[in-house]
Structures
1.
Amino acid sequence: MNNAVILAGGQGKRMKAPIPKPMFRVLGEPMLEWVLGACEDAGLQNICVITGYEADQIRNYLGDRCETAYQAERLGTGHAVMQAIPFLQKDTDGNTLVLCGDAPFIDSETIRGSLEHHVAEQNAVTVITASVEQPFGYGRILRTDNGISGIVEEKDATPEQRKITEINSGCYWFRTADLIELLGEIKNDNAQKEYYLTDTVAIALNDGLRAGAFCSQNPDVVLGANDRKGLLTLNTAARMAVLEKHMANGVGFTCTDGIIIERSVKIGAGTEILPNTILRGNTVIGENCVIGPNCVIENTEIGDEVELNTVQAYDSRIDAGVKIGPFVHIRPDSHICSGAKIGDFVEIKNSEIGEGTLIAHLAYLGDSDIGKKVNIGCGCVTVNFDGIKKSRCEIGDYAFVGCNNNLIAPVSLGKYSYTAAGATITTDVPDYALAIDRGTLHIKEGYTLRKYAKKKD
């Protein structure tokens, strides 16, 4: 069986937040999630995550997804992998991949390709590497005709070695049995008194074992983050990679300023995403839509030819041909049916808006079932909460709800019914009926003359 050990015990002091470094987010997902997902996509299901700083945060995030081991003291990468020895001893016949939980851009193709290379060359250890234009600060790979002779760090490299552009990613394949033996031979006789996993390469060679390197086609596998600036670099790289993928699939961007699209989002060809738009979670957007500017869409399914302008929508469904905005809030569990039009300053919550229904402006519709081709007047509110429980309103097809109406739930308006402006509806209105709620108008003549006369006195 092939295993994966993910090192996720780092504190990340320079991040200046009480969060384990691998839990900082890149495009909305913890860096650890990126690494876990790559392992799972590559078919590695037997995974152990090494925790350390604020270990409960990682354990709570993982749940029963994989095993964990705790590194009580942070004494180097080799020491971290030592904590996984009980996990490794369960099956020593296969191979083990060791990865960094704060290097999110490892990909499944690199994992699979490096494993094939590792097995084909019968290596005890295979270092995953990348060739980069600016290798400064990284360990250089020293190759031989038969594999590699070691990894030399920047500070220890000769001028000639510093010219090498193939660098260590911090990811390694080991034969599991060899890894257990090599961990037992690592020493901490260095200035930091730490156990370094990189030492396993030299130890393996000294023991007569074979060491090799696999150069990934993805140079970003080496990228990690030690501070907020580094985290911003990761987010920028990830953001642009996602945008480029969508552009290749026919999605348009006239300007990418402020556009953040999480990698789980799906967008149809011909759709245009305008600036300052954020698309999150399991959002699916159809073809030939215009989304933005200034939209936040999360876990929402959007049909074809939809136009959203300055809209926030969460956990909802918007069918084809809908036009919404500006300044509209679609709260969870809402369904906007095809052809509906929703104008400025409208909030919808847990409601169905029927086909072709018009809600022009300044309305709140919560816990409501609204039929097709209904007209909702300006200032309409469904009063769905009485302080104890929430109730629903029903509005039939082709109804006309006047301006400044309060619909006191539970209440039902029949099909083709009308309600007059300013009405407060507390009882059901039958089909084809007109509901008028007007109190007696009192006019007091000369009122303002008397009022201002008192003011002058």
2.
Amino acid sequence: MKKVCFCGISGSGMSALAQILKLSGDEVIGTDRSFDQGHDEENKNALQSLGIKILPQDGSAISEDVDCLYVSTAVEDHIPDVKAAISKGIPIKKRSDLLAEIFHRYKNSIAVGGTSGKTTTTAMIGYILDKLGQLPCMINGGLLRNYENQPGIPNIIFNKGDICVIEADESDGSIEKYHPYIAVINNISLDHKPIPELQKIFGDFAARSEYGAVVNADCEACKDIKHPHKKTVTFSLENPRADFTAYNIKAIPGGTAYSLDGRNFRLNLIGRFNVANALAAIAACSLLGIDKFDAAAALESFLGTHRRLEVIGSKNNVTVIDDFAHNPDKVAASMSALTDYPGRLLLMFQPHGFSPMRLMGKQIIEAFASYMKDEDILVIPEIYYAGGTVTRDISSRDLTDYAVSLGKQARFFETRAECGEFLKQNARPGDRVVIMGARDNTLPAFCRDILEGVK
């Protein structure tokens, strides 16, 4: 048994790993400045319910007998915990290093990569394997709605088997640390890096897989990616020559129906893109010997992950929806799914990061504009800033002006609170209020506040 400390333990990636180590028998301590500020109480209580000790982020958690301090990429060197570990000679490791270490303990390892959908696809694979008795360990960035009643934070599935499923992130380069048994590539589109750079990253990722790769045959940027020596399995919503193809896809109340090789199935999730995610999950499980129809049937009870077109609730016939969309592909996918159903859309997009908005801000607005009807309204607060040194040479006002130039109703507000008041005052029966954005744990609470304040 080791004694370890997690600095920034409330984060989705850090909390998942902390729980895995605790359930594996290690002594785990955690700190987080959000806890010190009185925020994220739900996460704090959930971690403590597993026996994880939470201490202030003032260096006091770093005793001489701590074997390792784990930090996220967002933790700075001046944080007291980091300074204390350095002064005591205690090893400091990144979250991604620990994830790779855990992942490579398992014989049958599945890593899910791609610009969009990897959180949902990872959750789907873990759920299929768990429901079919395969005893997987699954480590995810999203919260699984099917596991909300288990102790702790529901971003993991923990079993002591020989399968591990993880979400592999390309944005911070950590994907290069993983050598999976099976590599899954959902898609490639503009996000944190240019397309050619992403194609090289994911091509290398597929080549590192021991048994084979699962690739999206509908994605233009993926079409040339194949395992150089092992099996490559494809999935598609359009190409009947792919190994796994869905057809007869249609929106139904509360979900999506589709057909697979002559049999009909349904998902409790909206959008064609979720059928693609399901095919990726079914294909990955098939490489472990799981029957495709058994996998598809298992997914019929999958409830999804939080913040992926999650319906928060309805009041006065106004529905509030929370969504993680934050790049052009994700926005387009969510908007496409939303337009399959009736009702005006009142949209709020909270941009995160000045560099991402310089890279893809116009493409994000174009994704909104492609699906917005004349009656729909988009509101945008100023760019969400999470810290660090940045060049602030772009504003959400620029994004709003571009939306207006494309003929869409769009409003800029300095603050998110002003956006919220506008949405509350202007929502009318039949409307859907959709909040989109990433990297901000307070957005779900913001959605609930809007729901409560609908006139």
